[in-house]
Amino acid sequence: MKSKRYKNLLKIEKDLSSKPLKDLLTKIKKNCTTKFDESIDLNLQINNKQKKGEVNIRTIVNMPSGTGKKIKVAVLCEDGKKAEAEKVGADMVGGDDLIEKIKGGELNFEKLICTPKMMIGLSKLGKILGPKGLMPNPKLGTVTDNIEEAVKNAKAGQVEIKNDKDGNIGLSLGKKSFSDDKILSNYNAIIDALEKEKGNSTFKGEMIKSVYITSTMGISYKLKLDKHF
To answer: Which of 46, 91, 128, 192 is deepest in the core (most CB within 10 A)?
Structure first.
């Protein structure tokens, strides 16, 4: 059921035609009438149903303006690398003890970084970590010996771009409190990453079918892409 606040927004906003992001930000922020700092969220649908089967995107993008969220990062590593992980701000650091905690259901983190040597012990926990999107992956920079870089990237706002079975991708561009320039820089970084993914894949025709943007509790607007790919 739509709230009275939301229904009032729909009455005020009559023009829901497709526009570039820079022309919509003022409206989107004006619709943020709740007491908390709402997220500005992007929802894309890609054309992943291809003749030769589905094409799935899974990559990462470093958000130049961050996400406005504090990310809890866990690091699974050998004893010799624990001090490095703690020094750069990892929230949880461990070896076999951390594996046991995860096995017992302790998942008090949003990102798990693992050194290659520790992946052998972690591989048995795929059924626990996989469904939650927490399984480390070399392609995503979360299986690495460069603990410092991985933790800093995760804390600075590195996010994963991944579509579901219907081709939908959901991402946050930041918060209402972000300046327009910060939101636009994050948006451009995402679009550039998707454009690169198309060049590395077997997509036929246009990759992106539609893009919508909304605040957490606001109205959804259709975006007009500056690039077509």
So the answer is: 46
Q: What share of the chain is helix, strand, coil (3-state, %, to 5)?
A: 35, 25, 40
Q: Which residue in the block uniquely carries the two structure tokens 């996010």?
A: 159
For 201-225, the pLDDT digits (tens) are: 777 778 899 999 999 998 889 998 8
CATH code of the domain occupying 73-156: 3.40.50.790
Among the listed residues 63, 129, 141, the one whose alpha carbon sits nearest the alpha carbon of residue 101: 129
Q: Which residues pair with 215 in a beta bridge?
A: 40
Share of the chain above pLDDT 90, in %: 67
What does DSSP assign to residue 138? G
- Residue 18 to residue 222: CA distance in whole angstroms: 5
Report domain extents, the chain: 15-66+158-222, 73-156
Residue pair 108/92 in contact (Cβ under 8 Å)? The answer is yes
Instruction: Give the helix ranges, DSSP H, for 13-135.
Output: 25-30, 79-87, 96-103, 119-122, 126-129
Residue type, 146: N
Q: Residues 77-127: pLDDT tens digits?
A: 999 999 999 999 999 999 999 999 999 999 999 999 999 999 999 988 999
Q: Looking at the structure, give the CATH architecture of the domain made up of residues 15-66+158-222.
A: 2-Layer Sandwich (3.30)
